[in-house]
Here is the input.
Amino acid sequence: MFEYALSVMIFLPILAGLAMLLFPISRGASRIAGMIVSLVVLLMGIELFLGFSGTGGMQYLENRPWIESLGIRYGLGVDGISLLVLMTSAVLFPMVFSIFTTRKKGYYANLLIAQGSMIGAICATDLVLFYIFWEIMLLPIFFMIGIYGGPKRLPATLKITIYTIAGSLLMLAALVYVGVSYHNQFGAWTFDIVQLGALNLGGGFAVLAFFMFMAAFAIKIPLFPFHTWLPDAYTEAPTATTFVLSAIMAKIGVYGVIRFVVPVFEIEFARFAILFSLAGVVGMMYCGLAAIAQKDMKRMLAFSSASHMGIIAVGVFCMNVQALTGSLFQIAAHATSTGVLFLFVGLMEERMGSRDIGDLGGIAYRAPIFATFFAIAMLASVGLPGTSGFIGEFLIILGAVKFNGFIGFLAGTSLIIGVCYMLWMFQRVFFEKTNERTLQFADLKVSEVLTFLPVIVLIMAMGIFPQAFITKIEPAAQLQVAQIFPTTQSDVAETTVLTPGHTNTKN
Amino acid sequence: MSAEWLFYVFSVLSVLGASGLVLFRHPMSGAMSLIVTMISLAGLYALLSAKLIFVLQLIVYAGAIMSLILFIIMFLNIQTIDLPEEKGRFYYLVGGIILISPIASFLIKVVKSLPGSEATIVGSGFGGVKEVGLVLFQDWLLPFEIVSLLLLVSLVGAVVLAGKRRLNK
Amino acid sequence: MHDFLSFLPFLIIGAGAILLMLLSAFEKIQVEIASFVSMGFFGAAFFAQLLVGCGPEASLFAKVFNGMLVSSNFTMVAGLIILGCGFFTAVSSHSYFKVNLFCTLEFYCIMMFAACGMLLLTMAQELITAFIALEIMSLSIYILVGYDRANVTATEAILKYLILGAFAGAFFTMGTALIYGGAATTKFVEISTAISSGSASQPLLLAGVFFVFVALLFKAAAFPFHAWVIDVYEGASAPVTGFMATALKTAVFAVFANFLALSGELHSGWITFLFWVSVLTMFGGNLVAIGQSSLKRMLAASGIVHSGYLLIALVAISADHFTGSAIGYYLAAYAVSTLGIFAALSYLGGEGEKRATFDDFKGLAKVRPYSAAAITVFLLSMAGIPPTAGFMGKFYIITSAISAGQTALAVLLVVSSAFSMWYYLRLIINMYFHEAEDSFESIGSPLAGAGTLALVVCVFAIGLYPIVL
Amino acid sequence: MIQNYLILSVILFSLGILGVISRRNVFTVFMSIELMLNAANLSFIAFSRLHESMDGQVLALLVMAVAAAEAALALAVVILLHKHKGKLDTNVFSLLKG
Amino acid sequence: MEHTATYLGLIPLFPLIGALVIGLLHMLTCRKNPLSEMLYGALACIGPVLSFFLALVVFYHLKGLPADERMLTHNAYIWFAVGDLHVNMGFLADPLSSLMLLFVTFIGSLIHIYSIGYMAKDKNFGKFFAYMNLFLGSMLILVLGGGPVVMFVGWEGVGLCSYLLISYYSEDTDNVLAGNKAFIVNRIGDLGFVLGMSVLFWAIGAGGFDYLSLKANAHSLTPAIGVAVCLLLFVGACGKSAQIPLYVWLPDAMAGPTPVSALIHAATMVTAGVYMVARFSFIYAHFPSAGMVVAWVGILTALLAAIFGMFQKDIKKILAYSTVSQLGYMFAAVGVTAYSAGIFHVFTHAFFKALLFLGAGSVIYALHHQQDIWKMGGLKDKMPRTYWTMLIGALALSGVPPFSGFFSKDEILFSALANGHTGIWFIGVLVAGMTAYYTFRMIFLVFHGKPRDQQAFDHAHEPPAVMTIPLVILAVGAAFAGVLNLPAIFGGSLNVSHWLAPSVVEHHPHVSVWLELLAMLASIGVVAVGIYIAFKKFAEGAEEPVFTGFAKVGYNKFYVDEIYNALFVQTYKGFGSVISRFLEPNVTDSHVRFTSWLYQKAGNAFKALQVGYVRIYAIYMVIGLSLMSLFLSQSIN
Here is the structure.
């Protein structure tokens, strides 16, 4: 039975979601059904996580021919790179079903479809299969924002959809280019990522294909300056969708870079890593600065999320095992912290009818449990040691310093930038005086506490005992970095010379 | 020599007729000049020793098709006031000539590229009814057969479009 | 025997057409019956085609027809698509004519004649045969376009189509004449040998092929010969538009591909030309589509874009071992989704097609969720979103383009598909993200629902199990 | 010699195009198309003479048949148009646009 | 030679558990029916006291070992290991950390007890103690951390608690803002710390990223990287220990409850920077140029803060600036490689500054949260115990012999002189005089003269014993702690310095006794002058002056806050609003907007081309044909 675990994790939610759409069932029933399905997925995910041994290779493989004339296969598998992303998407979904009770049936169905397709994108080892899931996962998002979103949802929906599809279509052309190149070099068709690693690309088209791949992922992550869809979409989307977008979908962008770009385009990756890491830090700073000026809490979190994604992306481009592991770890950490913050904001909006920072105040006195949870998630998001956020951020900065001193310094400023807007928001919302709107804010109910508690515990656990996670992902990161290095050592050497002169300029 | 003379006469006539078609405002005049063109073309076919086509051009084209057109023009009783004003016609003509000149010059260039060999004398059977008929029914049977289908479609179509209709009530 | 079997679908359809023509003389026969009859014939021909299958390329009745008809895997696939289109058009006509009462028996008869022309066109390996087949098809379609005589827009549509179509036909004739002048023959095989032996006159062939291309590009609605298609699609009734958009395009591209593939030399000489035409077609089509408010006009314009994609596939065919698989697959994928959309339009358009614009479909999902879902599936397929057939089609075209070294075209293709997202999404947005203003009542026909469902299944089936390849 | 015929054919063909694009009268337009077909036919015959093969004549014959079929349909359409608007101006029929 | 001691982990764990328990209890009960203060108070004191006893155990354990082997380690588990980077959740107790451990737990326990009285009747009593326990736990992690990363955990943890406790009275926006400021400024320092750690790791961290391994590998640092590491780490120290330019948060931090100021912002947390530099003495000692930066920054901070301190009127602000100033001394000490002197000053300072703060807390408590010294006066008789203890603290702070401050400060000044840094010594002496002046200005204004606010004066009374007993204990410490490190000139043998010797890398220069004596006399003289001036001006009840000229600038702290605000905060906010109002909608999004605009415009143009006239469509065709013909006729010769 566990042989097909991944397939079940993918198709159980998708089929359940489709069935939910097709058959007339009530809202409550669909919520419960969704909850059950996501819990099943969660249990399978936990089982899978526990059974996973950190050897660096793929496990839980499924591989069947699909379209043989082009060597496209139905290939699934999990390794250290995808493990945490997979776990994130398995762990976080039940919360959504448990918290929000006021949505329609279609919403729950779309959530399930989103979950299934995201897991599919995470597990796929075949480029085409990945692409298919990658596109499918946008559809439920599109419908969720469009149907259940805020007042300005239409432009936001269009922008996210067309923008991201434009990016993915570029990737489509690039991935076909990769497949054709493989065919030209080895005489056989395949889109299996492991075999494509053997490919030896060069020349202008390879650079073009690399940038087309990166365009898709850069838009999804989103990297500066391709982030402009993000604030609108995150703000207008219903909370659970924002949660899914920020906690999981953005991460699949980063994951895609690691899984699909690095093995194929080692040379181009090493060549342009500095450019993209610069985009990452600039985006981190830019979005972080923009966050301080936001009045809408959700929009602020949206910018904060973009800012964090920038730093996660930096970790990927630094091409050393610390930074890469840090990014992989931070993927999960960010999902638990910022993602949960989005849920909290959603709760506040649901209870008080406003998420405008200026309208709120003094919630900490009314709802100590809520405030504590919020504070823990917030502190994780600013990277306080002892929470999940620290490990990843530290590793990324550490790696970035090795990669390039200046980038390292800029990446380090995330320590400051993040804390500025977060504290500012926390002050306005949780401290200061209560008003009539916040006076009636009720603290978390027992069921809600039980929902959030695991994640809060997870945030702490990932900060205090991160090694349990890192042992599973680190070997894969080692392999991945090793893959870049043999071919590109000479290219990289000049960029990794440590230049401490850069780093002490701000005294 | 006479063949060349005839050629020039017919070609001038046909070009004049075609120009008349393009220039005359009333379709009736246009139709009449088109008939001139067609008859001249028939003459040219004869000069090219395509006897059957010469006959068919006269009967089918100049005869049947053009009389059908004339018939319809008269049937509809087109008055001058019914005709479009076409005030800017000459601008369109000039513009059209400018537009077409690249096409025409291209085609003429193409035609000029043919080696200018004098036509050889062909046998008397060339272009006769029997000879063409043989070719038609031996080599070109399929097109001939499916032309029947085409005519059938055209027939049904004319009925459907212009005839009385029994509606499905 | 094989010749006969391969020819059988054509015979079945022709027989059906003539049968219906004869039946139309009888007052008693209802239009509905005619629709069932035509469905039956299309279905029978479809299965005949499917069962016959096809081995290697074979000339049909070589002695009698002088190699003017050739059947191959590609023609079989094209034939299947055309017959399928005919079947589903009959299905959607069935429901369409329940509210729009201008139908007579001849409608189905002419539709089947059109299918005859198309089938011939796919198999034609000779220019004048192709021309006649093209004219059979075109004349039938003209008639279908203008079938609603009481409707002035339909009349306008037929006028425009007829004038421009005949204009293009004249070019085809001239092109044939020039090719005949250049190669002394009009048969594809002999043209090919003439080219390879060097006995043909290059300039004449160039001009001739150019004119033939012009006519075919016109029929395929390539830029800049696209202007008619938008007006004609709007003027014609929805099932006819669907038929035109799918079956006609299939037939035209089939003959186009056959013609191009006749000689590698010919093909390679025209790559630059086709390259630019396809690029202009894709982007021109997108730009036309963007501003449209009528659904049919948008679909017409998107048809232009899809023609552009197919032209890319034509650029990328390999004349040496031509299989046409990418073209065939894409045509099938495109046909299924387009038919689906037009079936839905036929069904939901209401009397006199009163629901025709984007705005008219606001809130459809609230009232008729299943219809809206089906339309969404079709639109996504046209937009090329996985896992639908449209995606795989696009995938194959990109693959073949890159394999043929046309990476730039592949990139332009994806850019163009990104642009095309806007107008497909616009309809989805209108259907889902707005409140319903209309009750969308329509005369229920179980057939329409079944047909749409079958098409939805086809969209996914073709997408997930691309057996054509 | 044959070239002259072909040049004439080209001229007629061009005049036909000119008629189609510069005139608004439906009849004239249709007749211009007929003119183009005739020009093509002239080429067929001329080439047939050049190649000394009668295939060209057969082709011309078939084109005539097609032209006839087309003309029949065209005239039916003209009648239909006349019924609707009483005018034969192609510009009158411009409801479908934009 | 190191020994393992598994109980090390328990030391921070006790307060942390206490924090968790108190926090949960408070969180769950505060809304409905709060638990009794006695319960919270008792729970809160258990952790610190237990830790204190364990600290004693550590001390005696170490003492029982030979000097070279005084190192106890405990690696609880692998925290994270990536590639070459191995970070253990490891603890290290050596003489340095054991000294810190002792006084942190000792003073911490005292202040916890004191707080029971001070915070009585506060509605968030439980929360306060949860934070305090959390702070103590973090501080102990900081002190005990076996490597820089573990230290960083405590480092940030104390920063967080500092933030939480500064904004404790969170209904008042200013308090929260002060908390924010503290956290953010600390974070700026932390950036330096993290970068420093990173550079350090890539330089010598592959062999193990804990102090012992680093110390073993320190010799392979190149000068450039070594200096960079030192300076980056020092940025971190500046943030935490409030040195130029990052000192601005500490005066504002006085917004928190007074015990917090005593514990966190005087005795323990703010000295973490000094501790850190001492911890990394194995690097700093190799790079004197970096040390010079540290020393000069320290002494200038001392000077600046002393100037500010002279003009303040808020009793806590005065103490805050004096803390900054004293921290400056400590950095001057560690900068000139007199690590043990610096640490010893940390030690004595903890006693007398905590004492002063708690005393000030008593005053504030007695006067119902009046903090302006110009509204006090004559409290000497009403609050004798507070007066006497505070006087001892003031004498210690001013460096009057034989109180503890004298010995530690003198040790620093003497080390500077002995190492040849006359400038530092000179400023140091000057600052000592200023310190004496402002300290006694405060004492005279608060306790002497006539009451300036009669009503408050009438209600003033000595606080309960739970608050005064810690005062007395601390006063004893402040008075006599100096003897622990009595220099040879007084017949002592620098016990603390010898105790610390295994932990820090330093060498004691040998200078003539006369010089030492001279220096000592100079500083005593300057102190006496300072006290005398204060006495003359304030002992007999001066009225609040109107500041003009330099005094006004000094009172306004040289407008540094305003300058920072304009230079950094407003710039930051300005960037934020420029980005979100202008750049975001108009510039970064422009590629999207431009594309869609172009697309729509082109679409409209194409729509306009569909004129509907069939002739025009034919013309389009012919135009296309013409162009193609032109193109094709190129290929015909």
Notes: The CA atoms of residues 65 and 71 of chain D lie 10 Å apart. The mean pLDDT of chain D is 90. The interface with chain C takes residues 6, 9, 13, 16, 20, 26, 29-30, 33, 36-37, 39-41, 43-44, 46-47, 50-51, 53, 55-56, 59, 62-63, 66, 69-70, 73-74, 77, 80-81, 83-85, 90, 93-98 of chain D (CB under 8 Å). Chain D has three helices and no strands.
